[in-house]
Protein backbone atom coordinates (compact mmCIF):
# COMPACT_ATOMS: atom_id res chain seq x y z
CA UNK A 1 0.00 0.00 0.00
CA UNK A 2 1.34 3.41 -0.82
CA UNK A 3 1.33 6.55 1.25
CA UNK A 4 -1.10 8.34 -1.07
CA UNK A 5 -3.69 5.64 -0.49
CA UNK A 6 -3.10 5.57 3.26
CA UNK A 7 -3.78 9.30 3.43
CA UNK A 8 -6.85 9.17 1.22
CA UNK A 9 -10.49 9.52 2.11
CA UNK A 10 -11.11 6.12 0.53
CA UNK A 11 -8.79 4.56 3.11
CA UNK A 12 -10.72 6.17 5.96
CA UNK A 13 -14.03 5.21 4.34
CA UNK A 14 -12.99 1.56 4.20
CA UNK A 15 -11.76 1.63 7.78
CA UNK A 16 -15.14 3.03 8.83
CA UNK A 17 -16.87 0.33 6.77
CA UNK A 18 -14.91 -2.26 8.79
CA UNK A 19 -16.27 -0.67 12.00
CA UNK A 20 -19.76 -0.62 10.55
CA UNK A 21 -19.48 -4.33 9.77
CA UNK A 22 -18.28 -5.01 13.33
CA UNK A 23 -21.30 -3.10 14.64
CA UNK A 24 -23.62 -5.27 12.55
CA UNK A 25 -21.85 -8.38 13.85
CA UNK A 26 -22.28 -7.40 17.49
CA UNK A 27 -26.03 -7.06 16.84
CA UNK A 28 -26.46 -10.22 14.76
CA UNK A 29 -23.99 -12.46 16.57
CA UNK A 30 -24.26 -11.62 20.28
CA UNK A 31 -21.14 -12.51 22.21
CA UNK A 32 -18.90 -12.09 19.15
CA UNK A 33 -15.27 -11.31 20.06
CA UNK A 34 -13.70 -8.66 17.85
CA UNK A 35 -9.98 -8.77 17.06
CA UNK A 36 -8.68 -6.37 14.40
CA UNK A 37 -10.39 -4.67 11.46
CA UNK A 38 -8.14 -2.62 9.18
CA UNK A 39 -8.55 -1.19 5.66
CA UNK A 40 -6.47 -3.09 3.09
CA UNK A 41 -5.49 -2.63 -0.52
CA UNK A 42 -8.85 -3.34 -2.11
CA UNK A 43 -11.19 -3.03 0.83
CA UNK A 44 -11.21 -4.02 4.47
CA UNK A 45 -11.67 -6.94 6.81
CA UNK A 46 -12.47 -7.74 10.40
CA UNK A 47 -11.16 -10.78 12.30
CA UNK A 48 -13.70 -12.15 14.76
CA UNK A 49 -14.46 -15.14 16.92
CA UNK A 50 -18.15 -15.87 17.06
CA UNK A 51 -19.96 -18.26 19.42
CA UNK A 52 -22.29 -19.08 16.53
CA UNK A 53 -20.14 -19.83 13.47
CA UNK A 54 -20.41 -17.25 10.68
CA UNK A 55 -21.04 -18.75 7.23
CA UNK A 56 -20.94 -17.39 3.69
CA UNK A 57 -24.78 -17.38 3.67
CA UNK A 58 -24.74 -14.93 6.58
CA UNK A 59 -22.98 -12.25 4.55
CA UNK A 60 -26.24 -11.06 2.96
CA UNK A 61 -27.85 -10.44 6.35
CA UNK A 62 -24.73 -8.76 7.73
CA UNK A 63 -24.59 -6.49 4.69
CA UNK A 64 -28.30 -5.70 5.08
CA UNK A 65 -27.81 -4.75 8.73
CA UNK A 66 -24.83 -2.59 7.75
CA UNK A 67 -27.06 -0.66 5.35
CA UNK A 68 -29.64 -0.04 8.07
CA UNK A 69 -26.96 1.08 10.51
CA UNK A 70 -25.31 3.32 7.92
CA UNK A 71 -28.62 5.07 7.25
CA UNK A 72 -28.95 5.99 10.94
CA UNK A 73 -26.33 8.64 10.16
CA UNK A 74 -24.30 7.84 13.26
CA UNK A 75 -21.66 10.48 13.91
CA UNK A 76 -18.23 8.83 14.36
CA UNK A 77 -16.56 10.43 17.34
CA UNK A 78 -12.97 10.08 18.48
CA UNK A 79 -12.14 10.07 22.15
CA UNK A 80 -8.90 9.66 24.01
CA UNK A 81 -8.52 7.76 27.27
CA UNK A 82 -6.86 9.77 30.04
CA UNK A 83 -4.65 6.82 30.96
CA UNK A 84 -4.38 3.04 30.66
CA UNK A 85 -6.76 2.37 33.50
CA UNK A 86 -9.43 4.40 31.84
CA UNK A 87 -8.74 2.68 28.52
CA UNK A 88 -9.19 -0.68 30.22
CA UNK A 89 -12.47 0.46 31.74
CA UNK A 90 -13.76 1.67 28.37
CA UNK A 91 -12.91 -1.67 26.78
CA UNK A 92 -14.50 -3.70 29.57
CA UNK A 93 -17.58 -1.57 30.06
CA UNK A 94 -18.36 0.24 26.82
CA UNK A 95 -16.76 -1.79 24.03
CA UNK A 96 -18.36 -5.00 25.29
CA UNK A 97 -21.82 -3.38 24.79
CA UNK A 98 -23.21 -5.40 27.70
CA UNK A 99 -22.32 -8.69 26.02
CA UNK A 100 -19.97 -9.85 28.76
CA UNK A 101 -16.34 -9.15 29.56
CA UNK A 102 -15.17 -12.23 27.65
CA UNK A 103 -15.93 -10.41 24.39
CA UNK A 104 -13.12 -7.97 25.22
CA UNK A 105 -10.41 -10.67 25.18
CA UNK A 106 -8.59 -9.57 22.04
CA UNK A 107 -9.06 -5.85 22.59
CA UNK A 108 -7.40 -6.12 26.01
CA UNK A 109 -4.42 -7.86 24.42
CA UNK A 110 -4.23 -5.11 21.81
CA UNK A 111 -4.24 -2.49 24.56
CA UNK A 112 -1.30 -4.22 26.24
CA UNK A 113 0.62 -4.06 22.98
CA UNK A 114 0.27 -0.25 22.78
CA UNK A 115 3.69 1.17 23.75
CA UNK A 116 3.93 3.12 27.00
CA UNK A 117 3.31 6.82 26.65
CA UNK A 118 1.35 6.43 23.41
CA UNK A 119 -2.12 7.93 23.29
CA UNK A 120 -4.96 5.38 23.43
CA UNK A 121 -7.93 6.41 21.33
CA UNK A 122 -11.45 5.06 20.70
CA UNK A 123 -13.97 5.64 17.97
CA UNK A 124 -17.56 5.76 19.05
CA UNK A 125 -20.68 5.75 16.88
CA UNK A 126 -24.27 5.65 18.03
CA UNK A 127 -27.83 6.57 17.15
CA UNK A 128 -31.32 5.77 18.38
CA UNK A 129 -34.01 4.31 16.16
CA UNK A 130 -37.54 3.21 17.15
CA UNK A 131 -36.65 3.53 20.81
CA UNK A 132 -33.59 1.31 20.48
CA UNK A 133 -30.04 2.58 20.87
CA UNK A 134 -27.50 1.26 18.40
CA UNK A 135 -23.90 1.75 19.47
CA UNK A 136 -20.41 0.63 18.60
CA UNK A 137 -17.17 1.73 20.18
CA UNK A 138 -13.78 0.36 19.20
CA UNK A 139 -10.23 0.68 20.41
CA UNK A 140 -8.70 2.26 17.31
CA UNK A 141 -6.01 4.60 16.12
CA UNK A 142 -8.19 5.86 13.24
CA UNK A 143 -8.63 8.04 11.33
CA UNK A 144 -12.22 7.70 10.16
CA UNK A 145 -14.78 9.56 8.15
CA UNK A 146 -17.28 11.66 10.09
CA UNK A 147 -20.57 9.85 9.75
CA UNK A 148 -21.73 6.32 8.93
CA UNK A 149 -24.18 7.86 6.45
CA UNK A 150 -21.23 8.41 4.10
CA UNK A 151 -20.73 4.64 3.75
CA UNK A 152 -23.02 3.90 0.80
CA UNK A 153 -21.24 1.77 -1.78
CA UNK A 154 -19.93 -1.42 -0.23
CA UNK A 155 -20.11 -5.18 -0.49
CA UNK A 156 -19.04 -8.08 1.68
CA UNK A 157 -16.87 -10.44 -0.32
CA UNK A 158 -15.94 -13.69 1.37
CA UNK A 159 -14.73 -15.45 4.51
CA UNK A 160 -11.33 -16.86 5.34
CA UNK A 161 -9.58 -18.26 8.37
CA UNK A 162 -6.84 -16.19 10.02
CA UNK A 163 -4.76 -16.91 13.11
CA UNK A 164 -4.85 -14.33 15.86
CA UNK A 165 -1.72 -12.20 15.35
CA UNK A 166 -0.86 -14.33 12.29
CA UNK A 167 0.62 -17.03 14.54
CA UNK A 168 -0.31 -20.66 13.83
CA UNK A 169 -0.03 -21.43 17.55
CA UNK A 170 -2.93 -19.08 18.23
CA UNK A 171 -6.63 -19.58 17.75
CA UNK A 172 -8.05 -19.50 14.22
CA UNK A 173 -10.42 -16.56 13.80
CA UNK A 174 -12.93 -15.84 11.05
CA UNK A 175 -11.85 -13.09 8.69
CA UNK A 176 -14.66 -11.34 6.84
CA UNK A 177 -13.57 -9.44 3.76
CA UNK A 178 -15.47 -6.55 2.28
CA UNK A 179 -14.90 -3.65 -0.02
CA UNK A 180 -16.16 -0.09 -0.22
CA UNK A 181 -15.89 2.71 -2.75
CA UNK A 182 -16.72 6.37 -3.08
CA UNK A 183 -19.19 5.78 -5.90
CA UNK A 184 -21.51 3.10 -7.22
CA UNK A 185 -19.68 3.10 -10.57
CA UNK A 186 -16.32 2.42 -8.95
CA UNK A 187 -17.79 -0.43 -6.93
CA UNK A 188 -19.42 -1.91 -10.03
CA UNK A 189 -16.23 -1.65 -12.08
CA UNK A 190 -14.31 -3.34 -9.28
CA UNK A 191 -16.76 -6.22 -9.03
CA UNK A 192 -16.90 -6.60 -12.81
CA UNK A 193 -13.10 -6.68 -13.02
CA UNK A 194 -12.97 -9.32 -10.30
CA UNK A 195 -15.28 -11.58 -12.29
CA UNK A 196 -13.31 -10.87 -15.45
CA UNK A 197 -10.05 -11.66 -13.62
CA UNK A 198 -11.41 -15.09 -12.69
CA UNK A 199 -12.15 -15.80 -16.36
CA UNK A 200 -8.70 -14.60 -17.32
CA UNK A 201 -6.83 -16.51 -14.63
CA UNK A 202 -3.65 -17.57 -16.40
CA UNK A 203 -3.45 -20.83 -14.45
CA UNK A 204 -6.76 -21.98 -15.95
CA UNK A 205 -6.13 -20.51 -19.41
CA UNK A 206 -2.60 -21.92 -19.42
CA UNK A 207 -4.01 -25.42 -19.18
CA UNK A 208 -7.03 -24.83 -21.47
CA UNK A 209 -4.89 -23.31 -24.21
CA UNK A 210 -2.15 -25.88 -23.86
CA UNK A 211 0.51 -23.38 -22.76
CA UNK A 212 1.80 -24.80 -19.46
CA UNK A 213 0.92 -27.01 -16.54
CA UNK A 214 2.16 -27.71 -13.04
CA UNK A 215 2.58 -31.25 -11.79
CA UNK A 216 2.70 -32.23 -8.12
CA UNK A 217 5.18 -34.96 -9.08
CA UNK A 218 7.56 -32.39 -10.53
CA UNK A 219 7.12 -30.11 -7.54
CA UNK A 220 5.54 -26.78 -6.66
CA UNK A 221 6.51 -23.67 -8.58
CA UNK A 222 8.19 -25.61 -11.38
CA UNK A 223 6.17 -25.11 -14.58
CA UNK A 224 6.13 -27.56 -17.47
CA UNK A 225 5.91 -25.74 -20.79
CA UNK A 226 3.66 -27.42 -23.34
CA UNK A 227 4.30 -27.04 -27.10
CA UNK A 228 2.12 -23.95 -27.57
CA UNK A 229 3.59 -22.27 -24.49
CA UNK A 230 7.09 -23.11 -25.66
CA UNK A 231 6.27 -21.54 -29.05
CA UNK A 232 5.12 -18.39 -27.22
CA UNK A 233 8.44 -18.32 -25.36
CA UNK A 234 10.33 -18.69 -28.64
CA UNK A 235 8.39 -15.87 -30.28
CA UNK A 236 9.11 -13.57 -27.34
CA UNK A 237 12.79 -14.47 -27.11
CA UNK A 238 13.26 -14.16 -30.89
CA UNK A 239 11.71 -10.71 -30.79
CA UNK A 240 13.89 -9.50 -27.91
CA UNK A 241 17.01 -11.18 -29.29
CA UNK A 242 16.51 -9.23 -32.53
CA UNK A 243 16.06 -5.93 -30.68
CA UNK A 244 19.18 -6.65 -28.63
CA UNK A 245 21.35 -7.56 -31.61
CA UNK A 246 20.41 -4.24 -33.20
CA UNK A 247 21.56 -2.49 -30.02
CA UNK A 248 24.94 -4.15 -29.76
CA UNK A 249 24.23 -6.78 -27.12
CA UNK A 250 26.37 -9.92 -27.17
CA UNK A 251 24.80 -13.27 -26.30
CA UNK A 252 26.39 -15.52 -23.66
CA UNK A 253 25.37 -18.83 -22.06
CA UNK A 254 26.28 -19.86 -18.51
CA UNK A 255 25.72 -22.97 -16.36
CA UNK A 256 22.92 -23.61 -13.88
CA UNK A 257 25.17 -24.39 -10.95
CA UNK A 258 28.40 -22.87 -9.70
CA UNK A 259 30.87 -23.20 -6.89
CA UNK A 260 29.98 -21.44 -3.65
CA UNK A 261 33.09 -19.30 -4.20
CA UNK A 262 31.30 -17.37 -6.94
CA UNK A 263 28.40 -16.44 -4.70
CA UNK A 264 30.62 -15.69 -1.73
CA UNK A 265 32.48 -13.20 -3.87
CA UNK A 266 29.25 -11.66 -5.16
CA UNK A 267 27.77 -11.33 -1.67
CA UNK A 268 24.69 -13.41 -2.51
CA UNK A 269 25.40 -15.97 0.22
CA UNK A 270 25.29 -13.17 2.76
CA UNK A 271 22.32 -11.26 1.45
CA UNK A 272 20.26 -13.65 -0.64
CA UNK A 273 20.64 -16.95 1.23
CA UNK A 274 16.98 -17.31 2.21
CA UNK A 275 15.97 -17.35 -1.48
CA UNK A 276 18.60 -19.96 -2.44
CA UNK A 277 17.93 -23.70 -2.65
CA UNK A 278 19.90 -25.81 -0.16
CA UNK A 279 23.53 -26.17 -1.22
CA UNK A 280 24.98 -29.33 -2.76
CA UNK A 281 28.23 -30.86 -1.53
CA UNK A 282 30.10 -33.22 -3.82
CA UNK A 283 32.42 -36.09 -2.89
CA UNK A 284 35.45 -33.80 -2.74
CA UNK A 285 33.57 -31.62 -0.25
CA UNK A 286 33.19 -28.82 -2.76
CA UNK A 287 29.94 -26.90 -2.30
CA UNK A 288 27.85 -26.07 -5.35
CA UNK A 289 24.95 -23.69 -5.56
CA UNK A 290 21.94 -23.77 -7.84
CA UNK A 291 21.97 -20.47 -9.74
CA UNK A 292 19.69 -17.83 -8.18
CA UNK A 293 21.03 -14.97 -10.36
CA UNK A 294 22.99 -14.66 -13.57
CA UNK A 295 25.04 -11.58 -12.69
CA UNK A 296 28.18 -13.17 -11.20
CA UNK A 297 28.61 -15.40 -14.28
CA UNK A 298 28.49 -12.42 -16.61
CA UNK A 299 30.97 -10.65 -14.38
CA UNK A 300 33.37 -13.60 -14.71
CA UNK A 301 33.03 -13.35 -18.48
CA UNK A 302 33.78 -9.64 -18.38
CA UNK A 303 36.80 -10.25 -16.14
CA UNK A 304 38.12 -13.10 -18.30
CA UNK A 305 40.01 -10.71 -20.54
CA UNK A 306 41.75 -7.37 -20.40
CA UNK A 307 39.31 -4.59 -21.39
CA UNK A 308 40.21 -1.20 -22.77
CA UNK A 309 38.10 1.96 -22.61
CA UNK A 310 37.45 1.45 -26.31
CA UNK A 311 35.82 -1.94 -25.64
CA UNK A 312 33.18 -0.42 -23.42
CA UNK A 313 30.25 -0.62 -23.15
CA UNK A 314 30.19 -4.43 -23.02
CA UNK A 315 26.60 -5.66 -23.09
CA UNK A 316 26.22 -9.35 -22.22
CA UNK A 317 22.79 -10.90 -22.63
CA UNK A 318 21.44 -14.30 -21.71
CA UNK A 319 18.05 -15.92 -21.40
CA UNK A 320 19.24 -17.39 -18.13
CA UNK A 321 17.26 -19.84 -16.03
CA UNK A 322 17.49 -19.26 -12.29
CA UNK A 323 16.06 -21.00 -9.23
CA UNK A 324 14.78 -19.31 -6.11
CA UNK A 325 13.42 -20.93 -3.04
CA UNK A 326 10.08 -19.16 -2.66
CA UNK A 327 7.90 -20.22 0.28
CA UNK A 328 5.35 -22.72 -1.01
CA UNK A 329 2.54 -20.51 0.34
CA UNK A 330 3.76 -17.62 -1.81
CA UNK A 331 3.82 -19.48 -5.11
CA UNK A 332 1.18 -18.13 -7.49
CA UNK A 333 0.87 -19.74 -10.91
CA UNK A 334 3.45 -18.21 -13.23
CA UNK A 335 3.64 -15.00 -11.23
CA UNK A 336 5.80 -16.50 -8.54
CA UNK A 337 7.63 -19.70 -9.38
CA UNK A 338 10.76 -21.46 -8.16
CA UNK A 339 12.43 -21.91 -11.54
CA UNK A 340 12.23 -19.26 -14.23
CA UNK A 341 14.06 -17.75 -17.18
CA UNK A 342 15.11 -14.14 -17.03
CA UNK A 343 15.70 -12.09 -20.15
CA UNK A 344 18.80 -10.91 -18.40
CA UNK A 345 21.63 -8.65 -19.50
CA UNK A 346 24.49 -6.87 -17.82
CA UNK A 347 26.09 -3.77 -19.26
CA UNK A 348 29.59 -2.80 -18.19
CA UNK A 349 30.02 0.90 -18.87
CA UNK A 350 32.32 3.82 -18.25
CA UNK A 351 31.16 6.64 -16.03
CA UNK A 352 30.76 8.96 -19.03
CA UNK A 353 28.57 6.31 -20.74
CA UNK A 354 26.29 5.57 -17.82
CA UNK A 355 23.58 8.07 -18.58
CA UNK A 356 23.29 7.24 -22.30
CA UNK A 357 23.40 3.50 -21.68
CA UNK A 358 20.82 3.73 -18.93
CA UNK A 359 18.57 5.72 -21.22
CA UNK A 360 19.14 3.13 -23.97
CA UNK A 361 18.05 0.35 -21.65
CA UNK A 362 14.94 2.23 -20.54
CA UNK A 363 13.99 2.98 -24.14
CA UNK A 364 14.48 -0.69 -25.10
CA UNK A 365 12.23 -1.67 -22.21
CA UNK A 366 9.59 0.79 -23.36
CA UNK A 367 9.85 -0.52 -26.93
CA UNK A 368 9.28 -4.06 -25.63
CA UNK A 369 6.22 -3.06 -23.60
CA UNK A 370 4.79 -1.15 -26.54
CA UNK A 371 5.17 -4.13 -28.86
CA UNK A 372 3.44 -6.32 -26.27
CA UNK A 373 0.53 -3.88 -26.12
CA UNK A 374 1.27 -2.93 -22.49
CA UNK A 375 0.86 0.77 -22.91
CA UNK A 376 -0.07 1.93 -19.45
CA UNK A 377 2.62 2.02 -16.82
CA UNK A 378 4.22 4.17 -14.17
CA UNK A 379 7.88 4.55 -13.28
CA UNK A 380 9.20 3.90 -9.80
CA UNK A 381 12.73 4.60 -8.64
CA UNK A 382 13.54 2.22 -5.79
CA UNK A 383 16.11 3.52 -3.31
CA UNK A 384 17.73 2.29 -0.11
CA UNK A 385 15.75 2.05 3.10
CA UNK A 386 17.90 4.17 5.44
CA UNK A 387 16.76 2.07 8.44
CA UNK A 388 17.90 -1.28 7.01
CA UNK A 389 21.37 -2.88 6.91
CA UNK A 390 20.65 -5.41 4.17
CA UNK A 391 22.57 -3.44 1.53
CA UNK A 392 26.17 -3.70 0.37
CA UNK A 393 28.45 -0.88 -0.82
CA UNK A 394 29.20 2.63 0.36
CA UNK A 395 26.82 5.54 0.53
CA UNK A 396 28.64 7.64 -2.04
CA UNK A 397 28.18 5.05 -4.80
CA UNK A 398 24.54 4.63 -3.86
CA UNK A 399 24.09 8.36 -4.17
CA UNK A 400 25.81 8.45 -7.58
CA UNK A 401 23.69 5.61 -8.92
CA UNK A 402 20.46 7.16 -7.72
CA UNK A 403 21.38 10.49 -9.29
CA UNK A 404 22.10 8.84 -12.62
CA UNK A 405 18.71 7.10 -12.62
CA UNK A 406 16.82 10.27 -11.76
CA UNK A 407 18.71 12.29 -14.34
CA UNK A 408 17.91 9.70 -17.02
CA UNK A 409 14.21 9.89 -16.14
CA UNK A 410 14.30 13.67 -16.30
CA UNK A 411 16.06 13.71 -19.66
CA UNK A 412 13.59 11.16 -21.03
CA UNK A 413 10.75 13.21 -19.55
CA UNK A 414 9.43 10.28 -17.59
CA UNK A 415 7.30 11.08 -14.57
CA UNK A 416 8.58 8.96 -11.68
CA UNK A 417 8.11 8.46 -8.01
CA UNK A 418 10.87 7.59 -5.53
CA UNK A 419 10.19 4.67 -3.24
CA UNK A 420 12.55 4.11 -0.31
CA UNK A 421 13.27 0.47 0.49
CA UNK A 422 12.60 -0.84 -3.02
CA UNK A 423 16.25 -1.05 -4.11
CA UNK A 424 18.15 -4.28 -4.81
CA UNK A 425 20.72 -5.09 -2.16
CA UNK A 426 23.55 -3.89 -4.43
CA UNK A 427 22.05 -0.76 -5.92
CA UNK A 428 19.05 1.44 -6.68
CA UNK A 429 16.72 0.54 -9.55
CA UNK A 430 14.00 1.69 -11.86
CA UNK A 431 10.85 -0.40 -12.21
CA UNK A 432 8.12 -0.06 -14.77
CA UNK A 433 4.84 -0.88 -13.11
CA UNK A 434 2.33 -1.96 -15.68
CA UNK A 435 -1.40 -1.46 -15.45
CA UNK A 436 -3.19 -4.32 -17.16
CA UNK A 437 -6.54 -4.43 -18.98
CA UNK A 438 -8.35 -4.79 -15.63
CA UNK A 439 -6.45 -1.97 -13.95
CA UNK A 440 -4.26 -4.28 -11.88
CA UNK A 441 -0.63 -3.38 -11.40
CA UNK A 442 2.33 -5.62 -12.18
CA UNK A 443 5.95 -4.82 -11.52
CA UNK A 444 7.75 -5.83 -14.71
CA UNK A 445 10.78 -4.32 -16.45
CA UNK A 446 13.58 -3.61 -14.01
CA UNK A 447 16.78 -1.62 -14.60
CA UNK A 448 19.44 -1.41 -11.90
CA UNK A 449 22.63 0.62 -11.59
CA UNK A 450 25.34 -1.15 -9.65
CA UNK A 451 28.67 0.20 -8.39
CA UNK A 452 29.05 -2.55 -5.86
CA UNK A 453 29.51 -5.82 -7.74
CA UNK A 454 32.29 -4.29 -9.92
CA UNK A 455 33.92 -3.33 -6.63
CA UNK A 456 33.55 -6.78 -5.06
CA UNK A 457 34.96 -8.45 -8.16
CA UNK A 458 37.62 -5.74 -8.65
CA UNK A 459 36.56 -5.26 -12.28
CA UNK A 460 38.75 -3.02 -14.42
CA UNK A 461 39.33 -1.53 -17.80
CA UNK A 462 42.36 0.39 -18.99
CA UNK A 463 41.48 4.02 -19.52
CA UNK A 464 42.74 6.51 -22.07
CA UNK A 465 45.28 7.53 -19.45
CA UNK A 466 46.74 4.00 -19.45
CA UNK A 467 45.57 3.43 -15.87
CA UNK A 468 43.02 0.92 -14.57
CA UNK A 469 39.48 2.19 -13.92
CA UNK A 470 36.39 0.56 -12.52
CA UNK A 471 33.38 0.05 -14.80
CA UNK A 472 29.79 0.52 -13.61
CA UNK A 473 27.24 -2.25 -14.14
CA UNK A 474 23.65 -2.01 -15.31
CA UNK A 475 21.37 -5.00 -14.69
CA UNK A 476 18.18 -5.20 -16.70
CA UNK A 477 15.36 -7.53 -17.71
CA UNK A 478 12.56 -5.95 -19.80
CA UNK A 479 10.23 -8.96 -19.46
CA UNK A 480 11.30 -9.60 -15.89
CA UNK A 481 11.01 -13.29 -16.64
CA UNK A 482 9.38 -15.22 -19.45
CA UNK A 483 7.14 -16.95 -16.91
CA UNK A 484 5.85 -13.76 -15.35
CA UNK A 485 5.48 -11.98 -18.68
CA UNK A 486 3.55 -14.84 -20.26
CA UNK A 487 1.36 -15.05 -17.15
CA UNK A 488 0.62 -11.34 -17.50
CA UNK A 489 0.07 -11.48 -21.28
CA UNK A 490 -2.31 -14.43 -20.89
CA UNK A 491 -4.46 -12.38 -18.51
CA UNK A 492 -4.07 -9.14 -20.43
CA UNK A 493 -5.38 -10.74 -23.63
CA UNK A 494 -7.59 -13.34 -21.91
CA UNK A 495 -5.66 -15.89 -23.98
CA UNK A 496 -6.49 -14.20 -27.32
CA UNK A 497 -2.91 -13.26 -28.14
CA UNK A 498 -2.26 -10.77 -30.96
CA UNK A 499 -1.55 -12.40 -34.32
CA UNK A 500 2.26 -12.04 -34.18
CA UNK A 501 2.35 -13.71 -30.76
CA UNK A 502 -0.36 -16.38 -31.11
CA UNK A 503 1.16 -19.88 -30.87
CA UNK A 504 -1.15 -20.96 -33.70
CA UNK A 505 -2.07 -18.19 -36.12
CA UNK A 506 -4.24 -20.07 -38.61
CA UNK A 507 -6.35 -23.20 -38.21
CA UNK A 508 -7.42 -24.95 -41.41
CA UNK A 509 -10.72 -26.81 -41.13
CA UNK A 510 -11.42 -29.33 -43.92
CA UNK A 511 -15.19 -29.91 -44.02
CA UNK A 512 -14.90 -33.61 -44.86
CA UNK A 513 -12.10 -36.17 -44.89
CA UNK A 514 -11.69 -35.89 -48.65
CA UNK A 515 -10.71 -32.21 -48.23
CA UNK A 516 -7.86 -33.02 -45.82
CA UNK A 517 -5.08 -33.65 -48.38
CA UNK A 518 -5.77 -30.29 -49.99
CA UNK A 519 -5.85 -28.61 -46.56
CA UNK A 520 -2.47 -30.12 -45.88
CA UNK A 521 -1.08 -28.78 -49.16
CA UNK A 522 -2.27 -25.33 -48.22
CA UNK A 523 -0.70 -25.70 -44.78
CA UNK A 524 2.70 -26.59 -46.20
CA UNK A 525 2.60 -23.46 -48.31
CA UNK A 526 1.72 -21.22 -45.35
CA UNK A 527 4.27 -22.75 -43.00
CA UNK A 528 6.91 -23.44 -45.61
CA UNK A 529 7.27 -27.14 -44.82
CA UNK A 530 5.16 -30.27 -44.42
CA UNK A 531 3.73 -31.24 -41.07
CA UNK A 532 5.39 -34.52 -40.03
CA UNK A 533 2.28 -35.85 -38.34
CA UNK A 534 0.09 -35.70 -41.42
CA UNK A 535 -0.94 -39.16 -42.58
CA UNK A 536 -2.94 -38.93 -45.80
CA UNK A 537 -5.51 -41.62 -46.25
CA UNK A 538 -4.33 -43.82 -49.19
CA UNK A 539 -7.99 -44.36 -50.14
CA UNK A 540 -8.39 -40.65 -50.86
CA UNK A 541 -7.69 -39.24 -54.29
CA UNK A 542 -4.62 -37.05 -54.76
CA UNK A 543 -5.45 -33.40 -53.98
CA UNK A 544 -5.19 -30.74 -56.72
CA UNK A 545 -2.43 -28.16 -56.45
CA UNK A 546 -3.15 -24.91 -54.59
CA UNK A 547 -3.47 -22.18 -57.24
CA UNK A 548 -0.52 -19.79 -57.23
CA UNK A 549 1.20 -21.94 -54.59
CA UNK A 550 4.81 -21.19 -55.57
CA UNK A 551 4.14 -17.46 -55.60
CA UNK A 552 2.47 -17.55 -52.18
CA UNK A 553 5.35 -19.55 -50.76
CA UNK A 554 7.75 -16.89 -51.99
CA UNK A 555 5.64 -14.11 -50.43
CA UNK A 556 5.66 -15.82 -47.06
CA UNK A 557 9.40 -16.26 -47.32
CA UNK A 558 11.45 -17.11 -44.28
CA UNK A 559 8.86 -16.24 -41.65
CA UNK A 560 6.51 -19.20 -41.72
CA UNK A 561 2.93 -18.82 -40.55
CA UNK A 562 2.07 -21.11 -37.61
CA UNK A 563 -0.67 -23.38 -38.93
CA UNK A 564 -2.78 -26.20 -37.54
CA UNK A 565 -4.86 -28.55 -39.71
CA UNK A 566 -7.85 -29.84 -37.79
CA UNK A 567 -8.18 -33.44 -38.94
CA UNK A 568 -10.57 -34.49 -36.19
CA UNK A 569 -13.63 -36.40 -37.42
CA UNK A 570 -16.01 -33.85 -35.93
CA UNK A 571 -18.74 -31.87 -37.63
CA UNK A 572 -17.70 -28.48 -38.98
CA UNK A 573 -19.73 -26.73 -36.25
CA UNK A 574 -17.89 -28.62 -33.54
CA UNK A 575 -14.51 -27.94 -35.15
CA UNK A 576 -15.29 -24.21 -35.30
CA UNK A 577 -16.32 -24.13 -31.64
CA UNK A 578 -13.19 -26.01 -30.53
CA UNK A 579 -10.86 -23.71 -32.43
CA UNK A 580 -12.73 -20.67 -31.14
CA UNK A 581 -12.04 -21.88 -27.61
CA UNK A 582 -8.38 -22.06 -28.51
CA UNK A 583 -8.64 -18.35 -29.50
CA UNK A 584 -6.87 -18.87 -32.82
CA UNK A 585 -6.81 -15.59 -34.82
CA UNK A 586 -7.91 -17.12 -38.16
CA UNK A 587 -9.87 -20.21 -39.21
CA UNK A 588 -9.98 -21.27 -42.84
CA UNK A 589 -12.89 -23.51 -43.83
CA UNK A 590 -12.28 -25.71 -46.90
CA UNK A 591 -14.95 -27.56 -48.90
CA UNK A 592 -15.58 -28.71 -52.49
CA UNK A 593 -16.56 -25.30 -53.75
CA UNK A 594 -13.46 -23.66 -52.23
CA UNK A 595 -11.13 -26.21 -53.80
CA UNK A 596 -12.78 -25.72 -57.16
CA UNK A 597 -12.67 -21.93 -56.99
CA UNK A 598 -9.27 -21.54 -55.24
CA UNK A 599 -10.86 -19.81 -52.24
CA UNK A 600 -11.06 -20.30 -48.48
CA UNK A 601 -13.91 -19.47 -46.06
CA UNK A 602 -12.27 -17.06 -43.62
CA UNK A 603 -13.37 -16.62 -40.00
CA UNK A 604 -11.55 -13.94 -38.04
CA UNK A 605 -11.42 -14.13 -34.24
CA UNK A 606 -12.19 -10.42 -34.02
CA UNK A 607 -14.46 -9.85 -37.02
CA UNK A 608 -16.30 -13.15 -37.33
CA UNK A 609 -17.23 -14.78 -40.65
CA UNK A 610 -15.62 -12.89 -43.55
CA UNK A 611 -16.95 -15.28 -46.21
CA UNK A 612 -15.05 -16.89 -49.06
CA UNK A 613 -12.01 -15.10 -50.49
CA UNK A 614 -9.23 -16.13 -52.89
CA UNK A 615 -6.30 -17.69 -51.03
CA UNK A 616 -3.97 -14.96 -52.31
CA UNK A 617 -6.26 -12.31 -50.83
CA UNK A 618 -6.23 -14.01 -47.45
CA UNK A 619 -2.43 -14.34 -47.50
CA UNK A 620 -2.06 -10.67 -48.39
CA UNK A 621 -4.35 -9.74 -45.49
CA UNK A 622 -2.40 -11.98 -43.09
CA UNK A 623 0.99 -10.62 -44.10
CA UNK A 624 -0.24 -7.04 -43.93
CA UNK A 625 -1.37 -7.65 -40.38
CA UNK A 626 1.84 -9.38 -39.40
CA UNK A 627 4.36 -6.95 -40.81
ZN1 LIG B 1 -10.43 0.77 13.63
ZN1 LIG C 1 22.05 -8.95 -12.52
If you had to describe this structure to a student in words, what would you say it looks like?
It is globular, with a radius of gyration of 31 Å. β21 and β22 form a beta hairpin. The chain folds into 3 domains: 3-197, 2-Layer Sandwich (Threonyl-tRNA Synthetase, Chain A, domain 2); 223-492, Bira Bifunctional Protein, Domain 2 (BirA Bifunctional Protein, domain 2, 2-Layer Sandwich), CATH 3.30.930.10; 506-626, Rossmann fold (3-Layer(aba) Sandwich), CATH 3.40.50. The strands form 7 sheets. It has an 8-stranded mixed β-sheet, with helices on both faces. Strands 1, 2, 3, 7 and 8 form a 5-stranded antiparallel β-sheet that branches. A 5-stranded mixed β-sheet has the order 25-24-26-27-28, with helices on both faces. α2 crosses α3, α12 (354-371) packs across α13 and α16 runs parallel beside α17 (549-556). The model has no long low-confidence stretch (mean pLDDT 92). With 627 residues, the chain is an alpha+beta fold. One zinc ion is lined by residues 293-295, 346, 475.
Distinctive features:
globular, binds zinc ion, BirA Bifunctional Protein, domain 2, Rossmann fold, Threonyl-tRNA Synthetase, Chain A, domain 2, 627 residues, five-stranded antiparallel beta sheet, alpha+beta, single chain, eight-stranded mixed beta sheet
